[in-house]
Amino acid sequence: YSPEPGTELTYARYGLWNYLKAGKKNSSRYKDLQRAGSNLRGLIRVMLFKRFESSVFAFRETVTRLEKKQEIFIKCLDEGIVPAGKEAQKILYESDRYDQLELFDALETYSGTYDLKDFEAEKLREHLKKDQEILQEILRLISSISPDKDVKLQLFLSKLKNGFPKATGKVLVFTQYADTAKYLFNALNKNGDVADTACIYGMDKSKARIAARFAPKANPHIQGGDEIRILIATDVMSEGLNLQDGDVLVNYDLHWNPVRLIQRFGRIDRIGSDNDKIWGFNFFPELELERQLGLKAVLQSRIQEIHDTIGEDS
User: Fold this and answer.
1) Which of 38, 195, 211, 219 has its CA 20 to 30 A from that of 139?
2) What's the whole-model pTM score?
């Protein structure tokens, strides 16, 4: 989606501080808004492209959440509330936990932090509505990309069937985002009857048990349960776990930090592995996304910096 000039999202283009009336911009009360707004354009842009690089589902979920928060923000303005500041933004971020009445009650607690009379309220409301329309248009444009039309997903599924080596048949799949992990699991487990696949994300206390289910030989002292062949995980599984029963690792998306990629691969590239060979596969960003993000270029540069600083191991 390429918006016309001047239609970028309000938060990304201005920041809330720019909607203060002229006489209020130097008030110490609003200094934090000035700091918060200065870098949002680039941050939001990179966040959305990175989500899209991961999966169309993660991108869709993020845009849906943004659109919902936009709607809540507009309704708050109608109630005379400016839902800004650290605590109010935390409530907005967790808005799914509240019904609408509880949400406005919670936000009203912080309504005294910023006074709507100090802002150009109508201009702000008008621009927020335009933002909402842009987000709705993006959602409309991607609504037709169902899993069967998702080329990246379909390539992954076909590789699982006949494209990855099958020495052990065990495949460890990493993604940066919980939304993508759930998306992949649901694609593999449409009817809920695939017993040899598991998914883990977030600070799940069962990660040692999941590790034992995927790699029982590497974790003989942990009672895991039924053995699994495919494990889809976020980076909650990327450190300090023995998963070397598997010999294939897939990065469904790439992390900005090459050390994180090394940690992921280190789950199966470990002392004590019985595998003569192990394989690692990376999904690189689609070319247009790479032009926007420069993700591959950043990783190559950082990896070279590591090599130049500490050398390459064997």
Assistant:
1) 38
2) 0.83
